[in-house]
Write a structure and sequence with these properties.
- The complex is a heterodimer of chains A (362) and B (336).
- Chain A has 17 helices and eleven strands.
- With 362 residues, chain A is α/β, with parallel strands linked by helices.
- In chain A, strand 5, helix 8 and strand 6 form a beta-alpha-beta unit.
- Chain B folds into two domains: 119 residues, 60s Ribosomal Protein L30, Chain: A, CATH 3.30.1330; 159 residues, Phosphoribosyl-aminoimidazole Synthetase, Chain A, domain 2.
- The longest helix of chain B is centred in the N-terminal third of the chain and has 18 residues.
- Chain B is globular, with a radius of gyration of 19 Å.
- In chain B, 51% of the residues are buried.
- The chains are: A alpha/beta (362), B alpha+beta (336).
- The interface between A and B is large, with 61 and 48 residues.
């Protein structure tokens, strides 16, 4: 596939104009949350914080798939890898996440069959090639990854692959936004909404949330100009006092979203209550596997014993994920917790706020 | 959780690799030549200044667009010697092969090594072949070592960068890293990116003809440009400032990195060098690099600064500033 770089969205003149605009419309201090981990990384990589006025504070949100995956789920993936004829096929991000006792990376060094794949379909192929093994795919991610995992399960069912399983730890973004808004400690003036998730759920996906809370929301792409544009729009809304749900990523996001992907996702999964690391249980915020796909549900298939989960002592990931603390305010940050020897998931995932601060913040 | 087993991260060329070298190897082999930690060892024998280097090559897949493990193994050691300011002369080749490996594939690899040695102007003068049982190794691993002579008046090293030096990069970054990633099993990219695997010793010779005020030479292989610059900043105890819009990168390479969540600053190059040159001679050296077949896209990407010794700063395209840290461990593709 030919990939052309998005030069115009990295344009320095355009960026400068947007920063000027943001400076002109600023009024009081604004706390804006970039919900998505990819945004967090883009913001750091482009040095956006260093060119914004001091009055705008950007908070990293819970949209880092690895970071919000509950300790029990990580432990489950690790335990599954220890079963003799199991092959774990996983996205690379999950490899280093410390569970209560180990990590997938350490299990691999111990000889478990753990393979990095780039999509769930690769895992289906591995299952087809290894009929004597049981292939488990840890389903981690949001609305962005859920449709492709659902499609993989549909294929596996059609191919009658009895050895392909998904352990779903998939989550939904709008219920997490609601949970954030209902927390006393969380103070957010506006949301930079995730671009990739929005491609699937569309502007409509946020409408019920927006109608309920009337807080400024702008969907943003991932290039510097996209992000600055979204910040300018949020600042504009806050200045006028009229909150809106707006789309600054029109080249990719539509009002209705990708209906086909939504359908596929909902054919295989159904909303369930799940625990988010740091946030706790959020009603109807997870995607459980429906009864008609139970044959491919790893949770139903394997009987695993999980160690008692122990949240790492002193780790502030929980507060960092909801924007009430910054990584710099965590006592473990850079002292005990580094990407080399991470304590919490926010330091492990390349999209985690702590890892981003560690890599890019002077 | 501290490490009680070797992980792939220990071989990534990043911080975790460094700590293994520093904490385990250095204290045991303790000597001043080793502790310089240059691309090769630099020492004198009876008045002759020599550079000596070794490297072991493992790459998946072993054949990739732009080369194979064979030329990689020759050029890798040739380049490491050249980065010491030396003229590479003689190489050794050690092959470790898995039982059942195809003889015709081996022949292709060895022929490629022959062509690479001829292109670099070095001779393979000794070697060794070992075969291990099926499954005890993955296809083939190659070790090469080599020696070269450092001409009079040349003195380069990672600790020699000085405030005001210009930093020249000889071409586009991350070509090799991205090529290898896109060729791995499970990737379905149809890309035209090829590895930049090539010898740099002729380029280095031209550079020294242009100026002797070259202070640091590095080939940013494993760990990429970001890691190499950090090592230099640390060893020279200087600050380094680079400009994002000056760093050459192919559109396609940038696009693939974007898609996978990889930072091209940390992906491997196998035919690129960075040179720290006294400001007054930087144009001359830049022209010398550009006159070489492998340095057409060379450019000045930054300079050595007084501020924040030991750190590397990047001025982004949109005028922001951020630090460039050393790679920690292997980069892993992200989830969405």
């Amino acid at each position: 596939m030919p990939i052309k770089h998005l030069e115009e969205y990295r344009d320095s003149d355009l960026s400068r104009q947007l920063v000027e605009k943001i400076k002109r419309i600023r009024s009081k201090k604004l706390r804006l949350m970039e919900v998505c981990g990819t945004h967090t990384v883009s913001i750091f990589r482009a040095g956006i914080r260093s060119i914004l006025p001091d009055t705008i504070k950007l908070l990293s949100g819970p949209g880092c798939p690895v970071c919000v995956t509950d300790q029990r789920e990580i432990d489950a993936f690790i335990e599954l890898s220890k079963i003799d004829d199991v092959i774990i096929t996983t996205f690379g991000d999950l490899m280093r996440v410390p569970g209560t006792l180990a990590s997938l990376q350490k299990e691999r060094a111990d000889g478990r069959d753990i393979r990095i794949v780039y999509s769930a379909m690769d895992a289906v192929e591995i299952a087809a090639k290894n009929p004597n093994k049981k292939v488990v795919f840890p389903g981690v991610g949001f609305e962005t990854t859920a449709p492709t995992i659902a499609a993989a399960m549909i294929s596996a069912k059609k191919m009658q692959l009895e050895n392909f399983f998904v352990y779903s730890a998939l989550k939904l973004i709008p219920p997490a936004l609601e949970a954030l808004m209902s927390m006393e400690a969380v103070k957010i003036d506006g949301f930079i909404l995730p671009g990739h998730v929005s491609v699937i759920i569309g502007l409509n996906g946020y409408q019920p949330f927006f109608d309920k809370y009337k807080i400024p929301c702008v969907i943003s792409g991932f290039e510097p100009v996209d992000i600055l544009q979204a910040i300018a729009m949020l600042a504009g809304q806050l200045k006028t006092g009229i909150p809106k749900l707006e789309n600054a990523y029109v080249r990719a996001v539509t009002i209705a979203g990708n209906r086909r992907a939504q359908e596929i996702m909902m054919n295989v999964f159904q909303p369930v209550d799940v625990a988010w690391r740091g946030i706790g249980t959020i009603p109807q915020s997870g995607l459980g596997i429906r009864e008609n796909y139970i044959a491919h549900n790893a949770e139903a298939k394997f009987d695993i014993k999980l160690p008692d989960p122990e949240d790492p002592k002193g780790c502030a990931c929980g507060q960092i994920l909801i924007g009430t603390r910054s990584p710099l305010e965590c006592p473990l940050y850079k002292n005990v917790c580094t990407p080399m020897d991470p304590v919490g998931p926010c330091m492990v995932s390349s999209e985690g706020a702590c890892a981003a601060y560690y890599r890019y913040h002077s | 959780m501290k490490f009680d087993k070797i992980l792939l991260d220990h071989g990534s060329g990043g911080k975790i690799s460094h700590s293994l070298t520093a904490e385990m190897m250095l204290p045991i082999f303790d000597n001043p030549i080793l502790s310089d930690l240059n691309d090769g060892a630099i020492f004198d024998i009876e008045g002759l200044r020599l550079a000596f280097s070794t490297d072991t090559y493992t790459v998946d897949p072993i054949f990739f667009p732009g080369g194979n493990i064979g030329d990689l193994a020759i050029y890798g050691t040739v380049n490491d010697i050249a980065m010491c300011g030396a003229v590479p002369l003689f190489l050794s080749v050690g092959l470790l092969i898995e039982e059942g490996f195809s003889i015709s594939d081996l022949n292709i690899i060895v022929k490629q090594m022959g062509r690479a040695a001829a292109k670099a102007g070095v001779k393979v003068v000794t070697g060794d072949t070992k075969v291990v049982p099926k499954g005890a190794a993955d296809k083939i691993y190659i070790n090469t070592s080599g020696v070269g002579v450092i001409p009079d008046g040349i003195d380069v090293g990672s600790s020699r960068a000085q405030i005001g030096d210009k930093i020249i990069l000889s071409g586009t970054i991350a070509d090799h890293g991205v090529t290898v990633i896109t060729q791995r099993e499970g990737m379905t990219f149809e890309s035209t990116v090829t590895s930049d695997s090539s010898p740099l010793n002729h380029m280095v010779a031209k550079m020294f003809t242009a100026s002797k005020k070259i202070r640091v030479l590095r080939d940013p292989t494993r760990g990429g440009l970001g890691t190499s610059l950090n090592e230099i900043a640390e060893k020279s105890a200087v600050g380094i400032k680079i400009y994002e819009d000056k760093i050459p990168i192919r559109d396609e390479v940038a696009g693939i990195c974007e898609l996978l969540g990889f930072d091209p600053l940390y992906l491997a190059n196998e035919g690129k060098l960075i040179a720290f040159v006294a400001s007054e001679d930087s144009t001359k050296v830049l022209e010398a690099i550009r006159s070489d077949d492998f340095g057409k896209a060379a450019t000045i990407i930054g300079e050595v600064v007084v501020d924040s010794p030991g750190q590397v700063f990047l001025e982004t395209r949109i005028g922001g500033t951020r630090i460039v840290d050393m790679l920690t461990g292997e980069q892993l593709p992200r989830i969405c």
